[in-house]
Every structure is written in structure tokens, then in C-alpha cells.
Amino acid sequence: MSTPVRVLVVDDSATMRSLISAVLRRDPDISVVGTAADPLEARALIKELNPDVITLDVEMPNMNGLEFLEKIMRLRPMPVVMVSTLTQAGTDVTLAALEVGAVDAVAKPAPGVSPQEAFADLGEKVKIAARSRVRPLETREARALDSGYRADPDHILAIGSSTGGVEALLNILSAFPADCPATVVTQHMPASFTRSFAARLDKISAATVTEATDGAPLAPGRVYIAPGGEHHLEVSKGRCRLVAADPVNGHRPSVDVLFHSVASQARPMTGVILTGMGKDGAKGLLAMRQAGARTLGQDEATCVVYGMPRAAFELGAVERQLPLPRIAPAILDLCAASPRAPKPAI
């Protein structure tokens, strides 16, 4: 990068502030310009130092990290990387933060794990955050579900996403009716987060959303989220398969692995690639399109990071690029049992 990314580290623990700062300072493309022990101190330093990125602790005195993040995203939107504990409470708050607008999250060291290992990708996440598009926080309005919709029972919908994908998937799945197409999703996310994320999606969607298990049957009304960690999610003979294998494109689960497996199925299919850094999913989406799938990509203007959709588009894998609010309706049209009747003109 031409100039170092200026970072403000916010954490109530002096030890953690020191550890995070030390890890970040090892990267010549990052400059830690200040540290703060609580949101009140951080607010003053944001005005004084004008950092490019904030690393923000989830649990702090005076005002917790989520409350402070909401104020940031409403009043002065800027890239934020959350630093979370691996407790259930920490995971839930971090997912809420990603929904509010945090770019990414990293977990604090678990017992027996060194800070260098726990924060191994923190510097890269900070640099990605510095290049991301951050928008003011908007209240998500509940959307009317299409009660008359019926999905093609043979159709498979595969979705891939990464940085910014929490917000994008919430937007899409909240619009799905109960009889949505059989859906498989790979979102780059740590193992400790995917089950809670699936539960969060299940609450806001009329469809049934769960973390994928080996052998789970694909059926309309079911959405499966790839578990983070040790397996890739694949599709075979109408069922989910969890495959233990090396990371692909640096990721496990990998979007490319999911898309390639769907491309091999002799069924109608749709592939969608959403916001994210890198190129994971581009070749797999191309394989799907070459196998006859309809394919969609999120457009640059609505992506937090226009990396994965760009790579897929430039490869010729994307049939249509759409802004995020138009993706769910387009998916439902493509996966319907029969063409949907046009809405009457108003």
C-alpha cells in the first residue's frame, strides 16, 4: 500500500491493547496511531487522529462495543474490525456487530493459543477493511413475503460470500418465503460463528436455516450454512456432504468447492456470488454456468469488498450483476416452479 493504514486499537484490557498493537506493528503497511481503553476515550481519539480503521473490543465499560459501533455507523461511518471472545455471548454480539456494519471480526486467543497464532490474519483483515465500502447504518425493514410462491423442487441454489456477507445474506434470506429453493451457502467464517449465524438467519427468514450436517437432504424451504473449520460443504445425490480436505484458495469451507460440486449435479441450478475479498468461487461459478446454471453476482456499488464478484465477472462466470436489494427477487424468479406473474402496474 502507498501509505500505511492508520489504526486505532480500542480495548479495555491494557494487555490486549499491547498484544494487538504489537501484532499490527509487525506489518509495514500498518501504523498503530493510538489506543483507547473505552468508547469515551476512543471517541475523542477518532476526532483527533482520524484513523482509517478501528479494532474494537466487544465487551467494554461505559458503553459496550456494539452500542459504540452503532453510534459510529450512524454518525461517522468507518471501517471497524471487531475483536471478540469465543464465548457464546461474545459470538452473538460479534454477529450483531457484523450485521450493523463491522467489516470483519477476529477472535481473542483461547487458552493455550498464542496471540501470534490467534491474530495471524488480523493485519490482513485490517488492510481489507481499509479498502472496504462502509455505509451509514440503516434500519432494515421487514419485507412482505410472497405467500403464493412455490419453488421448483428440483432446483438447487448455491450462494458464496465472504467479507460483508453477513449483511448481504441477512438481506437476501429475510426476503425468502417458506417454500424457498433448496439452498446451500458457503460464507467464510470461523467455526465458532457458523452455528450461531445459522440460528440468527433462521429467526429472520420464513425458511428453515440450519448449519449443514453430513447427509442432510436438499429440499425446498431448507437453507444450509457450511460449518466453518474442518470441512468443505459439497452437494451429492441430493444431499449435503461435509468433506475433510485441505483449504482451497486459502479457505475452508471454500466457495469454489461448493460451486464445483453443484455444477456436477444433473439438476436445474442457480449460483450467486456476493461480496468478499479474493477470488474464491469464480472458477466454480464458471463451471456452474458452463453446466447450464443461471448465475448472479452482487454489483460493485453494494459490495463491502468487490473482490469475489469482480473475479467471477471478469472470468465470464456472472450472467447478471445486480445491486443487493434486487438479488433476492431475481433468485426467486429463477428458481420458481413456474414463471411468476408480473406485478400489476400501479
From TrEMBL:
The active site is at residues 162, 188, 280. The keyword Cell cycle does not apply. InterPro entries: CheB-like (IPR008248), CheB_C (IPR035909), CheY-like_superfamily (IPR011006), Sig_transdc_resp-reg_Me-estase (IPR000673), Sig_transdc_resp-reg_receiver (IPR001789). Its EC number is 3.1.1.61, 3.5.1.44. Residues 6-123 form the Response regulatory domain. Pfam families: CheB_methylest, Response_reg. It is an enzyme of class 3 (hydrolase). PROSITE patterns: CHEB, RESPONSE_REGULATORY. Phosphorylated by CheA. Phosphorylation of the N-terminal regulatory domain activates the methylesterase activity. The keyword Isomerase does not apply. It is found in: Cytoplasm. It comes from the Bacteria. It catalyses: [protein]-L-glutamate 5-O-methyl ester + H2O = L-glutamyl-[protein] + methanol + H(+); L-glutaminyl-[protein] + H2O = L-glutamyl-[protein] + NH4(+). Keywords: Chemotaxis, Cytoplasm, Hydrolase, Phosphoprotein. Residues 150-338 form the CheB-type methylesterase domain. One of its GO terms (molecular function) is protein-glutamine glutaminase activity. The modification 4-aspartylphosphate is found at residue 57. Belongs to the CheB family. PANTHER family: PROTEIN-GLUTAMATE METHYLESTERASE/PROTEIN-GLUTAMINE GLUTAMINASE, PROTEIN-GLUTAMATE METHYLESTERASE_PROTEIN-GLUTAMINE GLUTAMINASE. Involved in chemotaxis. Part of a chemotaxis signal transduction system that modulates chemotaxis in response to various stimuli. Catalyzes the demethylation of specific methylglutamate residues introduced into the chemoreceptors (methyl-accepting chemotaxis proteins or MCP) by CheR. Also mediates the irreversible deamidation of specific glutamine residues to glutamic acid. Contains a C-terminal catalytic domain, and an N-terminal region which modulates catalytic activity. This is Protein-glutamate methylesterase/protein-glutamine glutaminase. It comes from Brevundimonas faecalis. The lineage of its organism: Bacteria, Pseudomonadati, Pseudomonadota, Alphaproteobacteria, Caulobacterales.
